[in-house]
Design brief:
The structure holds two protein chains of two kinds.
Chain A (H helix, E strand, L loop, with lengths): L3 E3 L3 E4 L5 E7 L5 E8 L3 E8 L6 E2 L6 E7 L2 E6 L8 E8 L8 E2 L3 E5 L1
Parallel strand pairs in A: 2-11
Antiparallel strand pairs in A: 1-3, 3-8, 4-5, 4-9, 5-6, 7-8, 9-10, 9-11
Chain B lengths: L4 E3 L2 E5 L4 E6 L4 E9 L6 E6 L5 E4 L2 E5 L5 E6 L8 E9 L8 E2 L3 E6 L1
Parallel strand pairs in B: 2-11
Antiparallel strand pairs in B: 1-3, 3-8, 4-5, 4-9, 6-7, 7-8, 9-10, 9-11
Classes of the chains: A mainly beta, B mainly beta.
């Protein structure tokens, strides 16, 4: 069974903290993505990566960075968490060729207080 | 910027009713996917349509890709409470960079017994 696993289901962090969200996939997919999901705004792409050590900005990269040192792992970093980064964060992966169907993790509900 | 307009945003119906969700764009997509998301979980792929005019059926769900590959619809026959959830359409742009998908805003479906 294919799997994308996010390290935490729920996180509560303080304003100004550095936050790490981890994502691991076991499908040998080249592409990995980080989205945030907010009511009425749908899924918004933060960053994506199409290969190890490669990263591209998505639509809302401000306040975030990413790391992909190994093919199976893609980390999202909030350099200095702020309350407007309270959201549901979703990691996904996909193959580079074909219909690029995305497989999602279970999501991390992050609350910044 | 490519957009996918999904409608309606909210739908509340009684068990046994039929419904249709629409996804429209002015852009052409190489493929289009439909996902279903339950509260607190990540989206799960339902179907991918690739060919213009293609129709796919998944039990009581019928998916159609427009002839021009710019739009799609999801029709549910005799809805059941278990169909409740958030339905998302996502399109793969023709000139796909790194497997990026364009997501619609989602349709929140509630089926009451």
């Amino acid at each position: 069974d294919v799997k994308v696993t996010q390290s935490s289901r729920y996180l509560v962090k303080r304003t100004g903290e550095k936050v790490f969200l981890e994502c691991v996939q076991d499908m040998d997919h080249e592409n990995m993505f980080w989205y945030r999901q907010d009511p009425g705004l749908g899924l918004r792409l933060i960053y994506f990566s199409y290969d190890v050590k490669m990263k591209e900005k998505g639509d809302i990269p401000e306040g975030y960075s990413v790391s992909r040192e190994k093919k199976e792992r893609f980390s999202l970093i909030l350099e200095s968490a702020s309350t407007n980064q309270t959201s549901m964060y979703l990691c996904a992966s996909s193959l580079q060729q074909g219909a690029v169907e995305a497989f999602f993790g279970q999501g991390t509900r992050l609350t910044v207080v | 910027t490519q957009l996918l307009e999904q409608s309606p945003q909210f739908l509340s119906i009684q068990e046994g009713e039929n419904l249709t969700v629409y996804c429209n764009s002015s852009s052409v997509f190489s493929s289009l996917q439909w996902y279903r998301q339950e509260p607190g979980e990540g989206p799960v792929l339902l179907v991918t349509v690739v060919t213009g005019g293609e129709v796919k059926k998944l039990k009581r769900l019928t998916f159609q890709f427009g002839d021009a590959r710019k739009d799609s619809s999801l029709h549910i026959t005799a809805a059941q409470p278990g169909d409740t959830g958030l339905y998302l359409c996502a399109g793969a742009p023709i000139y796909n960079q790194g497997g990026k998908l364009i997501f619609g805003q989602g349709t929140e479906l509630s089926v009451k017994p």
